């Protein structure tokens, strides 16, 4: 309990590396939207935050999304706010982009494109990985 | 070893909550601490006290509540994910509490390992 109080009054003593991994398409399931909500809250905690997009998750960042036909909110603009929240480490898996015929120019925000092998190394350095 | 658990799926469509429950029971039996169980996405449905599975089925809502009481585990349901699914205090099983996503991040900070159960 005293640990909790210290946390509440003085902020966390440890800075951990938190990685949020997005693997799902932006629509069809709620995972992408609710993961983004976690990242925006997590950004307030002064931890070392990174966000990864791989598999169909790379489609979350695609430019020119138009959701009028499916009645869903287009939340792709919100990714642009990550920079305002000081979330600057944004990784996209190279192979996932290529498999879907996408390039960095197709994405709504600047990202660091990493090959799967390099991404694996970054993942191995994390303290906490939350994936969906 | 201090664990935090994240459950991202409801009790029926998916096995995530069952697996998390068994993991938690096993960890406690080994003498490990469970710092918090956080329910997110459809995982918030694990706290709905109006859930009535058939009598020959396991009831994860009451299993979690019972385990929480026996071992004084902090069972936290995300307020934002809960609201959009109609999970609020009026339907919340005893032993669970509703709070913000900050509780998930804080659990990640405080625990030695955060284990995610979901798709």
Overview of the structural elements:
The complex is a heterodimer of chains A (132) and B (119). Chain A is built from four helices and five strands; from the N terminus they run αβαββαβαβ. Chain A has helices at residues 2-10, 31-42, 94-99, 116-124; strands at residues 17-22, 48-53, 89-93, 112-114, 128-131. The radius of gyration of chain A is 16 Å and the shape is globular. Chain A starts with a helix and ends with a strand. Chain B has a single domain, classed as DsrEFH-like (Hypothetical Protein Ychn, Chain: A, 3-Layer(aba) Sandwich). Chain B has a five-stranded parallel sheet with strand order 4-3-2-1-5, sandwiched between helices. The longest helix of chain B has 14 residues, at 16-29. Chain A binds chain B through residues 3, 7, 12, 14, 16, 18, 24, 30-31, 34, 37-38, 41-42, 44-45, 47, 127-132, and chain B through 6, 8, 40-41, 80-81, 100-102, 104-106, 108-110, 114, 116, 118-119.
Attribute tags:
heterodimer; A: about 130 residues; alpha/beta; Hypothetical Protein Ychn, Chain: A; 5-stranded parallel β-sheet; 4 helices; about 20% strand; globular; B: about 120 residues; 5 strands
Helix count of chain A?
A: 4
E-strand count of chain B: 5
Q: Tell me what portion of residues of chain B adopts beta-strand conformation.
A: 15-25%
CATH topology value of chain A: Hypothetical Protein Ychn, Chain: A
List low-confidence stretches of chain B.
none
CATH class label of chain B = Alpha Beta
Q: What's the assembly state of these chains?
A: heterodimer
| Beta strand % of chain A | 15-25%
Largest chain-chain contact?
A-B, 23 and 19 residues
Give, in spatial order, the strands making up the sheet with the most strands of chain A.
4-3-2-1-5
Helix content of chain A: 25-40%
Mean pLDDT metric of chain A: 92
- Based on the coordinates given, report the CATH architecture of chain B: 3-Layer(aba) Sandwich
**CATH architecture designation of chain A:** 3-Layer(aba) Sandwich
Q: Can you count the helices of chain B? A: 4
What is the alpha-carbon Rg of chain B in Å? 13 Å
Number of domain modules of chain B: 1
The geometry of chain B reads as: globular
């Amino acid at each position: 309990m005293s640990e909790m109080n210290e946390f509440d009054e003085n902020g966390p003593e440890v800075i951990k590396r938190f990685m949020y991994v997005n693997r799902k398409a932006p629509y069809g399931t709620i995972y992408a939207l609710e993961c983004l909500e976690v990242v925006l809250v997590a950004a307030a905690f002064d931890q070392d935050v990174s966000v990864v997009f791989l598999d169909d998750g790379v489609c979350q960042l695609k430019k020119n999304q138009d959701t009028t036909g499916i009645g869903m909110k287009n939340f792709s603009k919100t990714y642009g706010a990550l920079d305002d929240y000081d979330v600057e480490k944004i990784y996209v898996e190279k192979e996932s982009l290529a498999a879907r015929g996408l390039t960095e120019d197709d994405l709504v925000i600047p990202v660091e494109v990493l090959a799967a092998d390099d991404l694996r190394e970054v993942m191995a350095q994390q303290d906490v990985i939350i994936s969906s | 070893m201090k664990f935090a658990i994240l459950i991202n799926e409801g009790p029926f469509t998916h096995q995530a909550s069952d697996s998390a429950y068994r993991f938690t029971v096993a960890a406690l039996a080994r003498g490990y601490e469970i710092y918090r169980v956080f329910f997110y996405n459809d995982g918030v449905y694990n706290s709905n006290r109006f859930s009535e599975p058939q009598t020959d089925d396991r009831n994860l809502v009451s299993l979690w509540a019972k385990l929480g009481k026996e071992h004084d585990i902090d069972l936290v349901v995300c307020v934002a994910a809960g609201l959009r699914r109609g999970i609020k205090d009026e339907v919340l099983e005893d032993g669970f509490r509703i709070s913000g996503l900050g509780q998930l991040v804080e659990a990640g900070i405080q625990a030695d390992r955060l284990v995610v159960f979901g798709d």
